[in-house]
Amino acid sequence: xAATIVPPGCVRSSLFDxxxxxxxxxxxxxxxxxxxxxxxxxxxGGGGVMVPMLTTLFLAQGxxxxxxxxxxxxxxxxxxVLTSVSSLRAHHAHGAVRWRIVRQITPGILIGTFAGTFxxxxxxxxxxxxxxxxxxxxxxxxxxxxxxxxxxxELPGLPGMSVTGFGIGVVSAxxxxxxxxxxxxxxxxxxxxxxxxxGTSAAIGFPIALAGTVGYLVNGWTAAGTPPFTLGYIxxxxxxxxxxxxxxxxxxxxACAHRLPVATLKKAFAGVLILLVVKxxxxxxx
Length: 286
What we know:
Elements: H1 27-42, H2 47-60, H3 68-93, H4 99-121, H5 125-145, H6 158-175, H7 180-189, H8 194-220, E1 230-231, E2 234-235, H9 236-256, H10 262-285
Antiparallel strand pairs: 1-2
Helix pairs in contact: 1-2, 1-9, 2-3, 2-10, 3-8, 3-9, 4-6, 4-8, 5-10, 7-8
């Protein structure tokens, strides 16, 4: 049975009105398993897979067209809160987190990510989907070509780190990523060892996800017509079912990373990412 949509202008009397099991919910644990495994195996953020898949699922469930991308972004951000904690702890245990960098960049990250959700909330579905598609195509191209910036400078001071954090936060909010696609190349460019850049990026992912989740919750709180089980732009069944499973499968992916040809898999994943983005755009424009 599909989730019941509240007509625009009506107020939901309860978060759990029309509480019936939806067969579409069975797709969310499968999505979480795949996202978690790929995140652990390839070190990529879940948003690249989660957002286009959630958009497709939300459209299939009959959610309002003008809200599906916003809900996919908000739900993906909330899921990253769960996965980023375990990732942060793992990298910290291996001494790979540069906490000084985290402290300097976090204020800008928090402000930029929260502000970015307000920008996203005021964009229509189509331009928001197009921006996401363009950025993910850029990420896929980086993977296919194995583009890595050459170390050529040192980390900037506090003002420069704050501005950089703000920029990373804004983009992260618009595409629901943990920031690794931007923060890792930035730190590598600033002569931070790659292992530390990846570990520090994992730590930065938590404030990005936290600020993004709060921002999408606030911006969607008064949105009319959202389905039951929704807080702001966060769809709780997808958050719980996908998020909890992704926590379990991420360590499995990380373990396989030491035995599988990750470089080859990254190129294959880049192709899959492009296909998912094309499918998402087809659904949005259709």
